[in-house]
Amino acid sequence: MANTIILTVIGSDRPGLVDDLSTMVNKHGGNWLESRMTRLSSNFAGIVRVSVPETNHEALERDIQSLGCANCQLIIEQEAKAGADEALRELSLEIIGPDHPGIVQDISHALAEKKIGINEISTDCQDGAMSSERIFSAEINIAIPTSIPVDSIRDQLEELANQLFVDITMDDLQGTVTRI
Fold first, then answer.
1. 2-78 architecture in CATH?
2. I want to staple 119 with a disulfide (CB 3.0 to 4.6 A). Which of 105, 141, 146, 173 is the partner?
3. Residue 68: its pLDDT value, please?
């Protein structure tokens, strides 16, 4: 029988960190199922979902705890068991506009009010190409219950885009892209 665990690693980046982690998983007969990893400034942040034989679970955890990473924080959790989910429709949002405090909070709040969770979010802020104005951008993947009409989300996002002075593009991943 296999256990599925979620590993979260945050700390100073160094070459070979992912190699060391994947070597430990492989050494204990584990299977690297999915991951999201990135370098932010000089820091490494990663989350990995791993399946490991039950008999090797504790040994893998011990080895991972010994991972050499300066100022490293490591969290190991058992995968939470999902309940019966309602049928979902995936949507992708792209947001671009002048940077100012509160954009992520406003968007996440609007989605939370509709009981929509964020599956994945990636944000960035850079100097504009034609001006010194900072430009905020985000890619957000959400999954909405099929019982929620896409039009109601589109209407709420349109109002939000106007309030925040940003452009929002929604892709239903079925060929329909809507600029809001």
1. 2-Layer Sandwich (3.30)
2. 141
3. 62
